[in-house]
Write a structure and sequence with these properties.
Layout lengths: L5 E4 L10 E4 L1 H22 L3 H44 L3 H18 L2
Antiparallel strand pairs: 1-2
């Protein structure tokens, strides 16, 4: 079984018509595939089927590694977005809207990249 979560983010910075929708299908799919194959590996192992248990355990491991890598990359981008948003808040608070806007623009780029 494959699952997907989606999130819609309306980012209307330069163009009010921009709508960014990102489906986290890849990372979620890899995680669900890892779970599915792990369950099959467990069931085959409990039934004494070594060959099938090995096959599904290997598949599960591969999908688990792919899911981990995709989530790690997203986290790096969100960390960067947070830094830029903190800077935007700081500069907006001292009446420097241009600098705040540039920091917000960078944050948006990182938020988008975290969803890919």
């Amino acid at each position: 079984m494959k699952y997907s979560n989606s999130i819609s983010i309306n980012l209307s910075v330069n163009n009010p018509e921009i709508s960014y929708t990102q489906v986290y299908a890849s990372a979620v799919s890899h995680a669900s595939e890892a779970m599915e194959h792990a369950g099959k590996a467990q069931a085959h192992g409990e039934s004494g089927h070594s060959k099938e248990a090995l096959q599904h355990a290997k598949e599960s491991l591969e999908h688990a590694k792919l899911a981990r890598n995709e989530h790690a990359e997203a986290q790096k981008h969100m960390d960067e977005a947070i830094k830029f948003l903190e800077e935007a808040i700081k500069y907006a608070g001292v009446n420097e809207p241009d600098i705040a806007a540039r920091n917000t623009e960078e944050a948006i780029k990182h938020i988008r990249d975290s969803c890919r």
